[in-house]
Amino acid sequence: MLLLFGPVEVWGAEPLSLSQTARQAEAEHRFADAARDLRLWLRQHPTDGPAWLRLASVAAVRADVVTATAACANAAPFVDPIAALACRGRVGLVSLEYERAYAPLVAALGHQRYAHRNDIWTTWACGVAAELAVAQGLDDAADRLFQRALRGAAAPTPQIEAAWLDHLLATGRYRQVLAATSAREPLDMLQLRRMIALQRLGMAQEGASLRAYLHWQYQSELERGEFLHAREIARFYLDVLPDTERARLAAENNLDYQREAQDYALYHRAFAVP
Prior knowledge:
- There is one protein chain.
- The longest helix has 16 residues, at 120-135.
- Helix 9 packs parallel to helix 11.
- Helix content is 68%, strand content 0%.
- The chain has 2 domains: 1-171, Serine Threonine Protein Phosphatase 5, Tetratricopeptide repeat, CATH 1.25.40.10; 184-274, no CATH class.
- It contains 15 helices and no strands.
- By secondary structure, the protein is mainly alpha-helical.
């Protein structure tokens, strides 16, 4: 899942607009609430292109291809063409139409209009194209696109960073994961990927304190019935500290929030464990 604009800001005492509450809900993985608020906002502001893009993103996370496709079409007249193509590419990740979504997006990114741009829309498009490349096994192309996304003028979102680390893990480049992260990494989602790399390098002892911290954090969330980070929790109890019961609990509840291809794959992994 690639969020469009990174973390939500903190607003003052002024009442939040529906657009702001939607963004807050999206950041908290309350995607149904985000979609509701966005629809209400867009009834009043039908020319708000970025809001249409956000609705498409929220719908895609929930595997609602029909809503996401329509939202991309509604956004197109009001946003940069590369953003409209990235939106369609985002839907392609969910509908599994990887090649159909990838070809026009990567062609546009290579066009003289966009080849040297590194603004927020082009950076987002590079991240989406990179994920489409990964889905097709185009590892070299994915490397180039991820690197371009990470070098964009806008700071890369944690989602882009996590997707890049996942690609490195999937292709066995564990030491590159360590080089790209820090032992003092502030985000749990990136710490988890570092811990998986340590585990696969046979360096689990070096990550003992990190493993203990993540176990405490994720166990506490499960005990409170909080599943905001259920995707990461399931991966931790599959790949770092095997615990079938916790992995299944997290993977099953994760589908209440996110229903992308990787979420279903995670669910099947958890329930395939004897």
